[in-house]
């Protein structure tokens, strides 16, 4: 055997015979041979562009596009607006931005870093002290040629998995200044904050210590139908299921979606008139609100910086404002917004929104039933200023008398289908659960009427309060709480 040879390209091959083709010879191989040596994707592009470099670049771009990776320069429409907007990165099939995004400087978003830091701190970002966290299935990201997952993967919620952050935390520890252990309860100064429309400062990432629950009697509880708000409403039951934290029951019986969103803070009512030095005063309302004119509405808050309470009495379209403490008279020169105190208090919390039932079948000057419920819900979600506003949208339920083909049933489906499309990561079909599964989870054998209702796509009477077409029983309320808890846990929104 020869000791070696030097090929035509000047490379010496020790202990090999001169039988291998040179690089130049490889380039001269037939198209059939090339097809066997390179991926089919590149072969297809070679057919249109014989320049190998251009073909390879086009193949890479095509692969990145298939993977959902945004490439190229800014086109003036950043993925996320704000002081640190996302210019590109990895997005889900539904267009949802994930953690794997960067700004136009190529850096991971500040809001994403803040979220990672908060999650690391919650786990205990100290070498040797982190507890084991089970990684959820990665649904997107980047893998090596051998199929091995890299650190750049995201879970179904678009976030880098907890197990990856667990691995990063001790690796980042030596670079922290100071290098002392990070406190489990960091000072508020380390967390990013955002400002609400009324000036309240809230965390950028929704706080799970309180789950704010907004809705009507289906949320508040219905004592007249033997569902005690204090112990049997789904927010009350949900509080018992939480490993940490509690709930706020913002449900009010009889309220329309507009009225719920006014209390939650998504909709803001503007008022005109003069606030006297003391006592109540009737003020004019600038907005057209879908009031329920057969009942009153009350809310505490601030108007023109003056604390007080709003009251609308029955069919009146004006509202009465009563200031909390005496002071100087104030004339509202322009329509001035009233800010809900409970809405501002819980703006930074994880939220659950369950409205619309009191709009169904109710005519209002505010317009089409489905459209006004959708608009009120969108306003409620939109008022949340967190980078990732964690709000679970439950949609609207049908009554036991509203089967397929019924006008009210059609309106409810329009509401829910629209909300499911608007919030694919936040919508939960509670109505679907109540129609198809709840009766079995309660251990009830369906009656003929139950089965007929379920076949007609509405709630079976056996899960409801007796002789009540709208309100579900205390046992069903507990099942609703369990479903909501499961959804919040699945999304990682509760501790």
For the largest sheet, list the strands in their spatial order: 12-13-16-15-14-17
The total of beta strands comes to 19
The CATH C-level name of the largest domain is Alpha Beta
- Report the portion of residues in β strands: 15-25%
Superfamily (CATH H level) name of the largest domain: SGNH hydrolase
Structural class: alpha+beta
Q: Would you tell me which CATH topology of the largest domain applies?
A: Rossmann fold
Largest sheet: 6 strands, antiparallel, barrel
Q: Unreliable segments (pLDDT under 50, ≥5 consecutive)?
A: 11-16, 19-39, 68-78, 125-136, 178-191
First-residue to last-residue Cα separation: 70 Å
Please identify, by name, the CATH architecture of the largest domain. Answer: 3-Layer(aba) Sandwich
Question: How much is the radius of gyration in Å?
Answer: 30 Å
Spell out the blueprint of helices and strands.
Layout: E1 4-6, E2 12-14, H1 23-27, H2 31-37, H3 40-48, H4 52-66, E3 69-70, E4 88-91, E5 97-102, H5 110-123, E6 140-143, E7 149-154, H6 162-172, E8 193-195, E9 201-203, E10 207-215, H7 217-220, H8 234-241, E11 246-251, H9 257-264, E12 269-275, E13 280-285, E14 297-303, E15 306-312, E16 319-323, E17 330-340, H10 341-345, E18 349-354, H11 369-382, E19 391-393, H12 407-422, H13 430-436, H14 438-441, H15 448-455, H16 474-490
Parallel strand pairs: 10-11, 10-18, 18-19
Antiparallel strand pairs: 1-2, 3-4, 4-5, 6-7, 8-9, 12-13, 12-17, 13-16, 14-15, 14-17, 15-16
Helix pairs in contact: 3-4, 5-6, 8-16, 9-11, 11-12
């Amino acid at each position: 055997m020869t000791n070696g040879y030097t090929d035509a390209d000047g490379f010496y091959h020790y202990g090999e015979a001169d039988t291998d083709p040179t690089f130049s010879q490889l380039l001269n191989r037939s198209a059939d041979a090339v097809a066997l040596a390179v991926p089919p994707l590149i072969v297809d592009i070679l057919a249109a562009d014989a320049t190998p470099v251009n073909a390879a670049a086009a193949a890479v771009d095509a692969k990145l596009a298939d993977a959902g990776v945004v490439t190229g320069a800014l086109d003036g429409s950043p993925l996320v607006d704000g002081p640190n907007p996302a210019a590109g990165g990895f997005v889900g099939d539904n267009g949802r931005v994930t953690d794997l995004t960067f700004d136009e400087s190529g850096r991971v978003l500040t809001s994403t870093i803040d979220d990672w830091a908060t999650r690391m701190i919650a786990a205990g970002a100290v070498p040797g002290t982190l507890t084991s966290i089970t990684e959820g299935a990665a649904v997107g990201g980047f893998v090596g040629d051998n199929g091995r997952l890299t650190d750049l993967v995201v879970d179904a919620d678009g976030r880098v998995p907890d197990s990856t952050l667990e691995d990063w935390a001790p690796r980042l520890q030596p670079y922290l200044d100071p290098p002392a252990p990070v406190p489990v309860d960091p000072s508020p100064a380390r967390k990013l904050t955002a400002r609400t429309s009324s000036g309240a400062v809230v965390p950028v990432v929704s706080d799970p210590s309180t789950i704010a629950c907004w809705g009507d009697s289906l949320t508040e509880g219905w004592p007249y139908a033997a569902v005690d708000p204090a112990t049997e409403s789904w927010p009350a039951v949900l509080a018992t299921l939480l490993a940490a934290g509690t709930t706020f029951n913002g449900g009010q019986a009889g309220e329309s979606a507009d009225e719920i969103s006014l209390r939650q803070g998504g909709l803001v009512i503007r008022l005109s008139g003069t606030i006297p030095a003391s006592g109540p005063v009737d003020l004019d309302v600038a907005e057209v609100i879908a009031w329920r004119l057969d009942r009153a509405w009350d809310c505490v808050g601030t108007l023109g910086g003056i604390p007080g309470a709003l009251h609308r009495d029955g069919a009146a379209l004006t509202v009465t404002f009563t200031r909390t403490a005496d002071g100087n008279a104030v004339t509202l020169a322009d329509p001035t917004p009233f800010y809900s105190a409970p809405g501002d208090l819980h703006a930074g919390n994880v939220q659950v929104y369950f409205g619309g039932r009191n709009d169904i079948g109710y005519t209002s000057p505010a317009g089409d039933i489905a459209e006004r419920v959708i608009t009120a819900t969108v306003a409620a979600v939109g008022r949340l200023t967190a980078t990732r506003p964690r709000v679970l949208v439950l949609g609207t339920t049908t009554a036991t008398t509203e089967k397929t083909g019924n006008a009210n049933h059609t309106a409810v489906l329009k509401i829910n289908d629209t909300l499911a499309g608007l919030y694919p990561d936040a919508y939960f079909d509670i109505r679907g659960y109540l129609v198809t599964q709840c009766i079995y989870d309660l251990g009830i054998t369906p009656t003929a009427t139950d089965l007929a209702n379920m076949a007609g796509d509405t709630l079976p009477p056996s899960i409801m309060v007796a002789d009540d077409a709208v309100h579900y029983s205390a046992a069903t309320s507990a099942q609703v709480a369990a479903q909501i808890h499961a959804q919040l846990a699945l999304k990682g929104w509760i501790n």
